[in-house]
């Protein structure tokens, strides 16, 4: 049984049993001295209406939304913030007296993690983005909003790249491996290197040998904490960033929406580090 009130939040999706979101939420609430709770809720395709009704009836203040419900829920909440409207998907829903607003904190969370770990800011920078899925959509949109000068997109599908470029605000283009050399930031959004990844992602879109010192190279995978691909990029001299930070910082941004308080990022990082060390 889930104890619910406007001091309850959660994460919804499938699979959900290994989600770190409730752990991050609880660490933040403890640090802030809030008597709030967080739950993991199993829900799959076709369950969006049930989840929206659950939020209103049971009084959840907010929910983090993961696959496969990001697009489905975006279609039926009362309104969307600018980033979620651009993407047509949400990873965060906020309940304001029964009025549900969808947000997307993934892209901004990624950039906040990069800045937190390296000091990098995207304004005027050149980026190479590998992949064309939901995470790539969030990140290219955030890069555009934060003033990146150029985003070269490398993916297996030309049509998928075309769709991504529509979110780039005129700053994106089809990329090739040759673009990596001039990039300030290189991002792999594919599942390559992830434990149990689809065999279709058995080779990287960007060879580590193309990266070099002076670059930041980011991988969204966080299990394992550091992929072999990242290790190889580090050997080339690049500054590397794993995927755990995006998880922490997108959750921090969601918590700030729900609570109206600055998220205790250090406490959330500590909880994430402890959990990653146990996995």
Overall description:
Residues 11-93 form the Shikimate dehydrogenase substrate binding N-terminal domain. With 279 residues, the chain is α/β, with parallel strands linked by helices. The protein has 2 domains: 8-104 and 250-278, Leucine Dehydrogenase, chain A, domain 1 (Rossmann fold); 107-242, NAD(P)-binding Rossmann-like Domain (Rossmann fold, 3-Layer(aba) Sandwich), CATH 3.40.50. Helices cover 38% and strands 19% of the residues. It has 10 helices and 12 strands. The protein has helices spanning 21-32, 48-58, 70-74, 82-87, 106-118, 134-145, 158-165, 228-235, 244-259, 265-278; strands at residues 8-13, 37-42, 62-65, 79-80, 92-96, 99-103, 126-130, 150-154, 172-174, 185-188, 216-219, 239-241. Strand 5 (92-96) and strand 6 form a beta hairpin. Helix 1 runs antiparallel to helix 10 (265-278) and helix 5 crosses helix 6 (134-145). The longest helix has 16 residues, at 244-259. The relative contact order is 0.14.
């Amino acid at each position: 049984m889930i104890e619910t009130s406007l001091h309850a939040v959660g994460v919804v999706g499938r699979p959900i049993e290994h989600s770190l979101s409730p752990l991050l939420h609880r660490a933040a609430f403890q640090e802030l001295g809030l008597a709030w709770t967080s739950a993991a809720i199993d829900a799959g395709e076709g369950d969006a209406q049930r989840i929206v009704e659950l939020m209103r009836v049971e009084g959840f203040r907010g929910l983090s939304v993961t696959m496969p419900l990001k697009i489905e829920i975006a279609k039926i909440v009362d309104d969307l913030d600018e980033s979620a409207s651009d993407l047509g998907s949400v990873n965060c829903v906020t309940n304001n007296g029964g009025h549900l607003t969808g947000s997307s904190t993934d892209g901004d969370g990624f950039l906040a993690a990069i800045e937190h770990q390296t000091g990098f800011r995207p304004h005027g920078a050149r980026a190479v983005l590998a992949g064309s899925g939901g995470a790539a959509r969030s990140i290219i949109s955030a890069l555009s909003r934060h003033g990146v000068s150029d985003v070269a997109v490398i993916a297996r599908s030309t049509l998928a790249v075309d769709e991504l470029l529509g979110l780039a605000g005129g700053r994106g283009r089809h990329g090739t491996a040759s673009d990596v050399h001039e990039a300030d930031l290189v991002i792999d959004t594919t599942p390559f290197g992830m434990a149990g990844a689809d065999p279709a992602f058995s080779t990287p879109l960007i060879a580590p040998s193309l990266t070099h010192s002076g670059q930041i190279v980011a991988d969204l995978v966080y299990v394992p904490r550091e992929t072999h691909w990242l290790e190889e990029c580090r050997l080339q001299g690049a500054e590397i960033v794993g995927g755990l930070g995006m998880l922490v910082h997108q959750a921090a941004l969601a918590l700030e929406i729900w609570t109206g308080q600055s998220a205790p990022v250090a406490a959330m990082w500590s909880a994430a580090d402890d959990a990653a060390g146990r996995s």
